[in-house]
Amino acid sequence: MDKVLLVTGGSSDIGINLINRVKDNYSYIIAHHIGDDEKLKELKEELKEKLILIEGNFLDYEKTQEFVEAVKQCGHIPTDIVHLPAGSFENIKFKKLTWDKFRDDIDISLRSLVLVLKEFLPVMAKNKYGRVVVMLTSCTVNVPPKYLASYTTSKYALLGLVKSLAVEYAGNNVTINGISPTMIETKFLSKVPSLLVEQNALKSPNGKNLTVDEVTPMIEFLLSDKACAITGENIAITNGNIM
């Protein structure tokens, strides 16, 4: 059986780094993206037919369904799935939040994963093999920061899905886990004031925020057969903080 990895949010800093780390472990890698991305283009030139790029706007229900259908039609059904997408990360007081922001965060993070897994989890169960890793957040591990209500709510919803599906598919050699890192230095922080990013780094015992290279090894491990006995977990990557 060919091993096929689907990375939703494949054009993110985490996605690019992960693809580079695991590219020799898979026959094919399917990377979800929105619009053109130079780093993904460079990877495509290197990996050629091994890397399959599929665009999809997860804010739109029909386009999300079209993305799932495109994955089905590409000829390589995923054995492993890494789910990275999230709505914009920005500090907004609850009284200023609209329902649209909550809905957008849920659509991007949760609805997209539900539609992807409804299609491919039954295949994994039938084949008695599958690995799913979902990007959560340290907001689900301890007391979350202020002013992140919509983001935190969507991540808790994802955690509920991880826990529920891990129980449902536990007898099929399908593992479903989440990882919850603290703040990572990526382009995802573009809407966060630099002062807040610096303050978060200073609160860490080592005086810095996490790097991508400190997060992707855990995803790589959870995708491996070494993690075959781990499922339903929310693994914190604390950057030295005790949570």
Could you describe the 3D structure shown?
The protein has a seven-stranded parallel β-sheet, sandwiched between helices. It has helices at residues 13-22, 38-47, 61-73, 99-127, 149-168, 194-203, 216-223; strands at 4-8, 28-33, 51-55, 80-83, 130-135, 174-181, 234-237. It has a single domain, classed as Rossmann fold. The chain has 243 residues and is an alpha/beta fold. It has seven helices and seven strands; from the N terminus they run βαβαβαβαβαβααβ.
Strands of the widest sheet, in order across it, are 3-2-1-4-5-6-7
Category by helix and strand content = alpha/beta
Indicate the CATH topology.
Answer: Rossmann fold
CATH superfamily: NAD(P)-binding Rossmann-like Domain
Tally of contiguous helical segments = 7
Number of DSSP E strands: 7
Q: Over the alpha carbons, how many angstroms does the gyration radius reach?
A: 17 Å
Total domains: 1
Low-pLDDT sequence parts: none
